[in-house]
Amino acid sequence: MATAGEWIEGARPRTLPNAVAPVVAGVGAAVALDGFSWPRSVLALLVSLALIVGVNYANDYSDGIRGTDENRVGPLRLVGSGAAKPKAVLVAALVALGLAGILGLVLVAISGLWWLLAMGAVCILGAWFYTGGKKPYGYYGFGEIAVFVFFGLAGVLGTVYVQAGQLSWTAFGCAVAVGAFSTGVLTANNLRDIPTDIESGKRTLATRLGDKGTRRLYLVLIAVPYVVSVLLAFVTPWALLGLLTAPLLLKSVKAVGGGEQGRALIPALRDTGLAMLGWAILTAVALAL
């Protein structure tokens, strides 16, 4: 039976910035539209956190029963390592996704925007079928697109809309930036896993682009948010604060650009996530100012 520490590690806490950053950036854009609401912000954050924990457990379960995680390099996989039974991990995934659904329902009820239930349902289905089902889209190279849409566009714009009841070009800029960061985290992860994914038959975008192509994609993705910072400076010069997070990515750029492999790429996931969270916080402050 898995220990509490193993369950926490299985939830992949290093991915939590992917859930927090879109809400923080969305809050900043909502403040700029004079639409900030503490209750709705907190609910949006809880929905996002529950969703990503559910995604992580669902991936652990689905990859584990397929045998994809048997030779995986990186954080503990509960099913793949044998630390927990597949049924227990499946239950954990369903509980987290169910909690996300309930909290999302409360948020929709408070905002009165009932049509957002459809978007919430798509997010939950997207979380499950990333690696679940007979033909998981994450196994066919669509994972990066899904992350950009769900943790970038939907996460940021949804947070803005349930508070302000409208969107702005600033909100779209933040959504693109956070989506690029979040996709960069997944790209670094899949770059690390290219050898084992090819062996297990998992055809991620990284396996399709190849090692060099995936490294180029990562470098482009992490450059996008800083281009957005410069563009947002036309709205408020304070947006240039986002550029202060660029040094956090120096080691990642060196590792990815320098051809590092396997475990040597793990810090790139952490640093990209931290840069994303830092960028979101500083940009939100800038927009609030």
Identify the notable features of this structure and list them briefly:
12 helices, 289 residues, mainly alpha, globular
Rg (C-alpha, Å):
18 Å
How far apart are the first and last residues' alpha carbons, in Å? 50 Å
- The chain-level structural class is mainly alpha
Strand element count: 0
Estimate the global geometry from the Cα principal axes: globular
The description of the largest β-sheet is: none
Number of domains: 1
Percentage beta strand: under 5%
Q: How large is the count of helical segments? A: 12
Pfam family, one: UbiA
Protein name: 1,4-dihydroxy-2-naphthoate octaprenyltransferase
Transmembrane segments: 41-58, 88-107, 113-130, 137-161, 167-188, 217-244
InterPro entries: MenA (IPR004657), UbiA_prenyltransferase (IPR000537), UbiA_sf (IPR044878), UBIAD1 (IPR026046)
Description:
- With 289 residues, the chain is mainly α.
- It has one domain (22-288).
- 72% of the residues lie in helices and 0% in strands.
- The protein has 12 helices and no strands.
- It is globular, with a radius of gyration of 18 Å.
- It starts with a helix and ends with a helix.
- The mean pLDDT is 93.
- It is a multi-pass membrane protein.
Task: Write a concise synopsis of the structure shown.
The protein is mainly α and 289 residues long. It has helices spanning 4-10, 17-32, 38-66, 78-81, 86-111, 116-129, 143-164, 169-192, 194-200, 205-232, 250-257, 266-288.
